[in-house]
Structure formats: C-alpha cells, structure tokens
Amino acid sequence: FMQLRHSADGFERIEQEMRIDLRLERTGSLCPLIDEIRYIRLYLEMYQIMYPQQLQFVICHDPDLDDIAVPVFLLQPIVENAIVHGIGQSGRGCIRITTELNDDRLIVCVADDGCGIPAERLANIWEHQPEGDANAPRIGLFNVRQRLRFLYGEGCGIELLSKAGEGATCR
Known about the structure:
- The chain is of the alpha+beta class.
- Helix content is 44%, strand content 21%.
- It has helices spanning 2-24, 33-50, 76-90, 119-123, 139-152; strands spanning 30-32, 55-60, 69-71, 93-102, 105-112, 160-162, 168-170.
- The strands form 2 sheets. It has a 5-stranded mixed beta sheet, covered by helices on one side.
- A hairpin with a 2-residue loop joins strand 4 (93-102) and strand 5 (105-112).
- Helix 1 packs antiparallel against helix 2.
- The chain starts with a helix and ends with a strand.
- Mean pLDDT is 83; it is low at 1-5.
C-alpha cells in the first residue's frame, strides 16, 4: 500500500509541474533549452515511477546553455524512442542526456545502453518507406529531424549511431 501511495504522490507532483510548464513556458515553436531539460527530467521521472527497477537516467547539462532557443518538444520523441525501442527491448537500462556547444553549434545527445539498432536497419532508417512498413523511421524521430531542418537549414538534423546490443546515440 505504501508503494502505491508513493507512486500516486509522485505522479501527482509530476503532473502539476508538467501542467505549469506546458501552460506558462512552452508556448510557440521555440523555448529556452533549460525549459526543455526541465520538461524531459519530469518525463523521465514519470517513467521511473512506472518502472522503478528498469529505468535510470543522467542529465549532464551545461547551465551556460540555458537560454539557447530550441524547438519545443525537441527531446521527448527521442527519449521516448530510447525508452520504448532501446531499453524496453532489453528490460532495463540508463538514458544519458548531455548538452554542449561545439563551434557555435548546440549538440544535444541522448544515449541509451539498450539493445541498439541492427546495422541493416540503421543504414536505411531515414529512407522513405511506404506507410505501415516496419522498417520506416519512427514518426517522432522523423518529425524532429524535419523541424530542425525547417528551423535551422539542411545542415542541421539528427545523427543516429548504434550497434546491435550496444545501445544507441541520437545527437
């Protein structure tokens, strides 16, 4: 009973914080990076409550980058893919999120130590596939990539690195 109460209290706190975050700070197509980091921390805490022994996470964020404007919901689809398709396949794992500035470019990295992506799938992941094809890229990753290119040009986007059995890194 105490575990259920603790989980309910945790969900209630996270729900209140997410509602405030969504209502007050996340309007428009861009938000400060720190808002995106706060939101994704709450999102990960919610998953930890649902799967307490399966998910761990680490966020290494440089506070000097707090005010950089990024697309709203930049990280959520990427983190969800890491949880569902990476860690979910292996049963437990850790997600590591890092932020850094490299030659005036913001690099946000989401890495998991889950099951990874087979080489043949990774090689074709961005190719256009007919709707419903099991090898088509996940719509969340595809949408994030398209939004980044629309906002910042063709030189921006997502790089996906992985080896089967060794996790995946999306940056």
